[in-house]
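Quick start: what a row looks like.
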Amino acid sequence: MTQNEYKHQWEQCLEIIKRNLEPKDFDTWFSPLSFYSYNAQTNELKINAPSSYFREHIEKNFSIVTWEAVRQGFGLKVRLGFRQMTDSENKLTQVVEVGNSKTLVEGVDPSAQVKKQINKQGRDVQPEFDSHLLEEYSFDNFIEGKSNILSRSVGMSLAQNPKQMTFNPLFIHGHSGVGKTHLVNAIGRAIKDIHPEKKVLYLSAHVFQYQYVDAVRNNNMPDFIRFYQQIDVLILDDVHEFAAQKGTQNTFFHIFNHLKQNGKQIILTCDRKPSEMQGMEERLLSRFKWGMIAEIGQPDEKLRKGILLNKIHRNGLDIPQDVVEFISKNITGNARELEGVVNSLMAHSICFNCDIDLTLAQRVVNQTAIVESRTVTVDDIVEHTCRVLEVTKEDILGSSRRANIAQARQIAMYLTQKHTNLSTSKIGAMIGNRNHATVIHSVRLIDDLLTNDKKVQERVSAVEESLKKRRG
């Protein structure tokens, strides 16, 4: 075989790895790898890696899934080695999404905003600091209700006085789509308006993770940390994305400490409260609890109606009152679902040249309900596994090795792998902070038992039936 044919085999290995990892893990750690050579006589496969850090991280966190893929592609006797790429081979710049705009991630500087520019007279000029706040979100269009009144009040208080330590950090949690991103951007914009001298930075934890990896690759970690230490108000969205990312967690821990000790404000959002987070270092979780923990719950009918009317007003729509009442009563989820229904009504009205009336609203709402009922989460699976197999959530997430608890945990991992698109690493992090090797072992074990163990067949079927009833 030629080297090009061996390269094709390596690309097939990557496809196997991709199917077993979460997309961001694959994109971060495996997309930068490339085929270098394969020696059929010595069975040695050499892969290009941006740095030795990549090799160490892959060996520590993804060794089993990597070995399984390479074994399928090249056989049992293959020896895998990594070769560090030269600067000319190494792509040091990535483009990632921040809100609706693309941001160039170059080492530590996501917007090139701390690099000095030289004006025509030769003097150093510091460019205006770009906060990356999302302009469409403000307090003016944040609709207040019982489910968010505490978080909104605390946010407005922070905007007036960002140095008050009572709410530092401000940890806002709630399910996806309830308005966490809207609120923290509103807080950031208000701080900028009232205190224009403050350096406010908003970004997602996912972007922070990319920046961290880029800093490691470029040996720029001191500059990366220094950049974040200069921020006056750091707003980090979806901090649960740090689960199982120990290097990122360790770096953020030091940044957090510096900001806190120097009276700088930290605002975090998450899909759950700190006590329910898995895959996070305890010392970081303890710091999340230092300040104010505020929840944004699912909107009640009154708030849902207010969100709908605001959306209708912003888009200049003419929607009858009975349609508004129907949607606010029957879509009981979050603001994102409500806005999705309005968008669907607009699309149907335009495509089919028809008025938005109650009949059209009923059809769109029914379609939305069917789609939503098919969605299943790790929390759903753990909850139904506990209910059917008569164990507690603490049992499954804990360290007990009792046979019934261990098997319930394995069944939860098996069903999560079957019914979600999560990687084995993410599944392990969310079910008791296990590693991906434990998840792979559990999935294989239950898969094998399902072929000849009637009790396991009955238990798995009972949990799936319970999930099916929940999903409609």
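That is the whole record. DSSP finds 20 helices and twelve strands in the chain. The two ends are 53 Å apart (CA to CA).
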